[in-house]
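Contributing new complexes? Match this layout with pyridoxal-5'-phosphate.
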Amino acid sequence: MAPGAVTPAEAATPAPAKAVPVAVNPAQAALDASIARFVAANPKSGELHELATSSMPGGNTRTQLHASPFPMCMRSGKDYQVTSEDGVTYTDFVGELTAAVFGHSHPLIIESMIKALTTVGINLGATIAQEHVHAAAMCERFSLDRIRFTNCGTEANLHALAGARAFTGKRKVVVFSGGYHGGVLMFSGGEPAVNNVDRDDFIVAKFNDIESAQAAIRQEGVAAVLIEGMQGGPGAVPGKPEFLKAIEAAAKEAGVVFILDEVMTSRVAPGGLAELHGLKPDMKSFGKYLGGGLAFGAFGGRADIMATYDPRPSSTSTTFLTHHGTFNNNTLAMYVGHVGLTQIYTPEACTEFNAMGVKWLSDLAEVTKGTKMCFTGVGTVLGSHFTAEGLQTIERETPEDWTLKELFWFEMMEDNFWITRRGSIALCMGTPESELQRFVGCVEAFLKRHASLVSL
Ligand SMILES: Cc1ncc(COP(=O)(O)O)c(C=O)c1O
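Output block (do not edit by hand):
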């Protein structure tokens, strides 16, 4: 037997325990305790998750919603609240990742949905007049020459890219590290995700870094630059206005199509984030609340670029891009989305709603001063962050303290606030000011309770 080797019997016998003190990470200990309380308080969600694993891998069909030890299972929603299968009601700060602008039971949304169902019917397999009505309203609101509808934001971006490629005759697309443009267009890890489409056709530049963006846009063969004005993935990280302007200028100079992904941000101002920063993108993509809470997407912009989709014969082109999709013009989204945009989220309502978010963000900045925590965001879309240095500006590359982030998530649920695990928040209209202030108080109490973990 080789010197130093152990026999199987020796290996199986544990060495006598020595009294070596095990270092306990206090943040991890607090998190473990909060997870134990979560498990005890939500047995039904745990059971349902177990059940779901027998038909779906990991019991999941939307990665964003997976959580360990198990995700909270929601049973219903009303106005600005959601209620879990365990019978607990929460103030909904997830806001369906920005799609639930109207809350969960707005009377006008319900009324228009019933009206469309009873007077129009579910999808007619034909062009409907309402398509143009919603298209015209969106063109006017978001300064577009032409628009087309899709089933979701992902598709909207894919079609916008196809349009830009057909228009320029080039293939490459500049995107940004941390960017998210849909389930097959993700750059959250700093490079194209494994399941992305056209992985080799992307150049990933650094968000909020003008030089990196300009160098990428000026490369040979670039058709388009696709960017979110505020990155949702890293937690509502706003693009600096001068950075976004520089991209617009570089794209114009290089003849590259500038596509602003407004899927999340079209709600931050009446004309979207483009209006907020005075940007004039060549194309924009949309989704979320603009279908009235139903599955929806749209892309639009300059008439000459959108003409690549025009199926009518023309003097300049005999070919056009096809744009199929059973539910592109689905009756419900066309009617309900239109009511949502023109009767509920009017320019006035949108301005007032986002002003409330701006004030709330400043209240949160006040109570997080001198701690590792900060909130970022635009309007009513926010992200919470914990950094060792107490940074106020976050980028995808910024190292964050995920133990504190998780602890915050679990403990805010105990205070009846439903936020995303990654710490992002999207308000629903009609959330009472008293709930916003209760949250500020709960954040303050959390920071006091864990002062030894979160103070600078
Ligand atoms: C900025 C952005 N673009 C695109 C998408 C994709 O939209 P959808 O989930 O409707 O495909 C999302 C979804 O969260 C998004 O936030």
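Reviewers usually confirm one structural detail per submission. For this one: Confidence is low (pLDDT under 50) at residues 1-16.
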